[in-house]
Amino acid sequence: MSKYPLDGVRIIALEQYIAAPYCTMWLADCGAEVIKIERPDGGDPRRNYQPALKSESGESVYGGFVTYNRNKKSVALDLQTAEGRQVYLDLIKSADVVVENLKPGSVDKLGLGYADLIKVNPRLIYAAISGYGRTKDLDGAYSGLPAFDPVIQAMSGITNLFGEEGGPPEVSPLALGDLFTGVMAGYQILLALFMRERTGVGQYIDAAMYDSLVALNEKSLMLYTFAGEVLSRGRDKYQAPYRTFAVNDGYVALITPNDFIWARFCKALGKEEWITHPQMADGRLRAANTDAWEPFVEQWMAERSSDDVVAALDKFGVPAGKVQTGEDLATCEHLKARKALVEVDDPDVGSLLLARAPVRMSAMGEVRKASAPKLGQHTADILGDMLGYSDHRIAELKAAGAVA
Question: What is the C-alpha R_g of the chain?
Fold first, then answer.
């Protein structure tokens, strides 16, 4: 019985930066063989993204690369050369999936686009990740434009939600466009693999960052559609409390999304009269009349620790949680008990603590835990063992600069 759900699935990843590597990393964690294609002269630009750890020998291991590229194999291949392009086509012959996020149109100019690849592998699933989409009959004003995450955050309306009320919009420090698009591209790849099992046919996947983040920002469209209002920075107008509160050792997040949880909250604070108070009868009234209840809550919170607040509210069935830092996550006993963090053994700097693929399936073994590959680490093995190239031919390709 297969240990991993994606055992036997081969993915050629012509990828860089975050969106596509994030997509293929989760698939690799769950058993897919991911062969990352990189330029011989430096590889994925994120190979040099800080912060970095140094080994005793002076070797640098960069967090911006390792985080998104574990469990993969690296082949250094110059697609600007005819020899390099032929190697790529030979790899495609036995591939199940291609994931690619280069600038729109660049692979087509090389003769390596979807239409070219299905000539050598008709069952191929091709996932193209871009800023604004690549399907020709769905071309919009932005199709073909390059994009990075902060640009897509702004275009999707998400940037309009971050920052202080009355202040300028702020870009989220999380690469939301890259990360969520990576997840949605992976979702579509799994759907396409399932469809191919039934139909025998591969297909083209057009995963646009803009589409993905607009879907993630569904609340903005919902509010505009149903109320004609523009969601922006500041407090929620329909739910309260819905915010963080200062406690004596940090902050706690709290929400009362409906009136019966609000009633529980009132009981936890010993303020049962608030349940029937005319200024607090529903979320919108509470949001409009914060002066009637918020000062007391703020004082109640400030006198207690985060653990005490969470415990006190939990007794009455009110969800609340401490605002945690990266250090808190690294030492969290709950995450340790859940095995939600994995220690990946890097050959240069030793053990690295990373977030585990959030996949829990009763018939699946533990996720894979190999560190990210060095540039071109697997070139010779893959060309020799997978493609059947002789040592002499591999040496010729290296001499020509087609592979490294």
Answer: 25
Q: Are residues 52 and 159 in the same domain?
A: yes
What range defines the domain where residue 124 resides?
10-217+336-399
Q: Are residues 253 and 395 in the same domain?
A: no
Quote the tokens at residue 221: 């469209």
Q: How far apart are CA 391 and CA 376, in angstroms?
A: 16
Q: Cis link prior to 169 (omega < 30° from 0)?
A: no
231 vs 224: CA distance, rounded Å: 8
Entry pTM: 0.95
pLDDT (tens digit per residue) in 40-51: 999 999 999 999
In a domain, 115, yes or no: yes
Low-confidence residues of the chain: pLDDT under 70:
1
In this structure, the chain runs to a length of: 404
Q: Does 346 participate in catalysis according to the annotation?
A: no
209-251 pLDDT, tens per residue?
A: 999 999 999 999 999 999 999 999 999 999 999 999 999 999 9
Which pLDDT belongs to residue 139?
85
Annotated catalytic residue, options 78, 178, 211, 346:
178
Phi, psi of 42 (to 5 degrees): 115, -25
Q: What is the dihedral of CA 256, 261, 264, 269, to 10 degrees?
A: 10
The per-residue b/e assignment along 72-91, b for 16 or more CB within 10 angstroms, e otherwise, is bbbbbbbbebebbbebbbeb
Pairing assessment for the beta strands 350-355 and 341-346 based on DSSP bridges? antiparallel
Rounded Cα gap, residues 107 and 57, in angstroms: 38
Q: How many Cβ atoms from other residues are within 10 Å of residue 346's Cβ?
A: 18
Indicate the Cα dihedral angle 323, 327, 333, 336, nearest 10°: 120
DSSP state for residue 373 in the 8-state scheme:
P
Residue 167 and residue 54 share a domain:
yes
Could you identify the residue written with the tokens 């031919």?
393
Q: Are 37 and 117 in contact (CB under 8 A)?
A: no
pLDDT for the residue numbered 1: 62
Q: How many domains does the chain have?
A: 2
Burial profile 252-283: b = 16 or more Cβ within 10 angstroms, e = fewer:
bbbbbeeeebbbbbbbbbebeebbeeeebeeb
Residue 244 pairs in a beta bridge with: 253
In the three-class reduction of DSSP (H, G, I as helix; E, B as strand; rest coil), residue 247 is classed as: strand
